[in-house]
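Deliverable D4.2, example record:
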Amino acid sequence: MDVAFLGGPAPQRGIGVVAPFDFALDRELWRWVPDEVSLHVTRTPYVPVEVSLDLARLVSEHETLSEAVRTLNAVEPEVIGYACTSGSFVGGIVGERAMCEAMSRAGNVPAITTSGALLEALVELDVRRVALVTPYTVSVTRALEGYVAEAGVAVTGCAFMGLTRHIWKVPYREVVDMARRAVRGAADALFISCTNLPTYDVIPQLEAELRIPVISANQVTMWAALRRLGTRAVGPYQALIDPAARTGPVLPGDTPGAVVPEEEQQEGWT
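Output generated by the structure prediction step:
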């Protein structure tokens, strides 16, 4: 069979992805990527530390990131994305910007991080009040709250899981349950943190139920990286990706500025 008439394969544009050693959701990242774009994924070296602030600092050291980026240079990606939320918010906004600069120097291309992409997404959606879901311990969750607050966004509710390992094994039903608990009081959006937490299929369901945009770590990472290429992420019924899917206010009966009584604070809440 003569296949010369096909003329392909079509030219591919590339995104280099640097992920922590325990990242297990490569396939989820691909679900936001259009056909003409390839992902080239590398990982930071293994560190025998549980998910914590210490681990976040270790996997985000500039030399570690720069070395990972240099391993991708041979395939000539047009943009580099660091796919780790805690590793990119642990140093605050200044630290996140410094990470992007270090990666850009190593790869000579634009660089983004998950936490930087989060702030871009909050601006895109005009979010001033956000609810958070994390799989983290309380200390890592508090650091995320501080990062968001540093950007001038109020945290109206937060639910966390307290996990230190095997985050990729969390089933969708637990993500949905935590989201429902986090959205109390007025919120303009919900952010589900951690690039190792599965979220793709729950985003449309939660947006329909909660009536606010729902964004996740992997989603904002791919959205921001593809934006640098001048193209769009793909994904049905997701407000960040499709402006037509953007909805109105939060659940009926929610009161702006509502305060949760102290007795409702418990483990798994912050």
